[in-house]
Amino acid sequence: MTIPKLAIDGGKPVRDDFLFFHKSSVGREEVEEIADSFESGWLTTGPKTAEFERRFAEYLGAPSVVGLNSCTAGLHLGLVVMGVEEGDEVITTPITFPSTANVIEHQRATTVFVDVEPETLLMDPTGLERAITSKTRAITPVHYAGHPCDMPAIMQIAGDNGIRVVEDCAHAIESTLDGRHCGTFGDIGAFSFYATKNITCGEGGAACVNSEELRDRLIVLRLHGLTKDAWKRYDKGGFAHYECVVPGFKYNMMDIQAAMLLHQLGKLNAFAERRRAIVHKYDESLTQIPELRPLTRRSNIQHAHHIYPVLLQLDMLKCSRDQFLNAMQAENIGMAVHFRALHLHPYYVQKHGFKRGDFPNAEKASESLVSLPLYPAMSDHDILTVIEAVERVVANYRR
Length: 399
Ligand SMILES: Cc1ncc(COP(=O)(O)O)c(C=O)c1O
Description:
Elements: H1 28-40, H2 47-60, E1 64-68, H3 71-81, E2 89-92, H4 98-106, E3 110-113, H5 125-131, E4 136-139, H6 151-161, E5 164-168, E6 176-177, E7 180-181, E8 188-192, E9 205-209, H7 212-221, H8 230-233, H9 255-286, E10 292-294, E11 301-302, E12 308-312, H10 321-330, H11 346-352, H12 360-368, E13 369-372, H13 380-397
Helix pairs in contact: 1-9, 2-9, 3-4, 9-13
């Protein structure tokens, strides 16, 4: 059988129009709820935020949720309330988005990376145990792609050493381990509602916390360290002055964000079902291609399928990862990379002296990872064209 010529080499692309790597699914309900906020005259943190916090906590089975303007804010506040400061070490993994570690640097603490397991790209508990020192104050495991980390092992190590845990749940809204939601194992779990996330309000986040005491502290810290938020200050009843009790941050969620999220949350199960169906179709075809290796999924988990990462087996291909990406884009398939290993980004190299060879599993993944489009708005035709493009690119570059 002749192999169709690649579009990058002058052939006809697999599809005529460009399939974006991501498109959000937002309906009339979200638009009308935002309009309701506009008409009520109340735009910032207020009753819709409170309602979303209540409903998201119920979904997670968490004692409490605090609405924020990003996951990064949640990761940062997590470290702040855990008392992370200069001289402390915080452990995370290099296959993550920069903000996971940037917030450690904001606290003037030291970022300590441990390598990932090669087959899941999750924190390796054995490496974690070895990385602990007398200075370790917190651990930030990343539930990469939506696969839960080994939280029982991580919590055991944390507990044995008196260390706090801030879970990075940016990819893990639906993720559970033995039926328990990610974010509820550690002291705090930080979620993202950024434009590409499984539910979205464009920009937004939330922290789930395991105690009312932590919730109260986050409520104060998310709004400048004030004792009364605007909703309470401007409410009817006796006049209430605010007081600044700590130099807090501007991290609060607005009601116009919560307006979208209330409806996105209601659609979460339908979104998740569509994501599973797409993953099933990808798995069926792509696991047949020896040059590709989708990540391992364990059996006792529910995966959030936030992204569909594939490890290219570059020794079996005549292309680099970036040539593969360019060839896919030329076929009109939008692609992404989650992630290039963070310890080799310029800031981390310059600040901490990390170098190639420090975390071999992360580095190998960093050079061979690609993410395929995965979102509920994809049609069956879209899925088929992604698979066809992957097959065509691999066939052209096969050794
Ligand atoms: C693993 C991970 N952590 C944290 C974040 C930050 O999320 P946000 O943009 O909501 O701050 C992201 C965003 O993509 C992420 O992928």
